[in-house]
Amino acid sequence: MKRFFMLLTVLACVCVSALGYNLNTVVDSADLLSDSEETALLQKCENLYAAHDFQLVFHTTYGTDGQPIHLYAADFYDYNGYGYGADCDGIIFVVDMQEREYVTVTTGKGINYFSDYTISAIEDGIVSDLSEGEFYDAFLDYADSVENQLAYVKKQSEVIDDQPVYEFDYVQAYDYYGDYVTSGEKLMIAAVIALVITGIVLGVMVASMKTARKKNQAADYVQDVNLTRVSDVYLYTTERRRKIQTSSSSGNGGSSTFRGSSGTSHGGGRAGKF
After folding, report:
1. Please, what sign has the CA dihedral across residues 61, 67, 73, 78?
2. Residue whose C-alpha is closest to residue 155's, from 176, 125, 183, 186
3. Enclosing H/E stretch for 40
4. I want to staple 145 with a disulfide (CB 3.0 to 4.6 A). Which of 26, 38, 66, 122 is the partner?
5. d(CA 169, CA 146)
6. Strand-pair partners of 96
7. Strands 272-273 and 26-28
8. Which residues sit opposite 57 in a β-bridge?
9. What pTM value is reported for the model?
10. CA distance 33 to 177
11. So what's the pLDDT on residue 202?
12. pLDDT tens sequence across 150-201
């Protein structure tokens, strides 16, 4: 049944190839998903494509034909006609069961939308599911994170006129309830927290001052001090060194890039193990 479904999807891809994009965005060559799971995940990717003009691709495999997984992922994306528009905007997540590796590779606007930091944050959220064999749950969470990222980028581009903002801190973009937190709200929250901490510190200081007792005689303020010898002794010197990073990507917004065999530029490409 699964092979029949895959045959239908391949035929569908052939039919739409003339349109310049590939609709078969879930290619489960390692057979990690059930038919229903694959169908549901495919529908999620199609909805994301329609809503954001951006293509999300999942591919599982058993082996990468001797290539590093990031080059394999880039070639799979390029040579199968994935991506939206002339720049092939999109992102692909590949899982190799032979080496138990995973990788995210971005293309077109995806390079700006998904920094190395952002990709790591998304992958860190699903690596435990991958390790436990919960591949469907991992892929769903991954798709949700991609959707949230794209929604945030869209919101930022609407907020600032004629100057879209693509780089931001993925982890701090949402509060614990999944709602967006604006910069103004962050400043307000920080100010409230600072006031509370200041109040606590002042309260402790005032309470500690209540131990003072009145002295009636001058002698009460004099302590017996016997100095027999004073000397300075040199003991040691403490030296601290700080490593300065020289990576090509800076902060949370940088994205590493490389080229696949087709010559197309891609972002991401840092493999992880599970």
Report:
1. negative
2. 183
3. helix 35-52
4. 122
5. 14
6. 61, 101
7. unpaired
8. 92
9. 0.64
10. 29
11. 66
12. 999 988 877 545 555 444 444 434 332 334 444 445 455 555 666 666 667 6
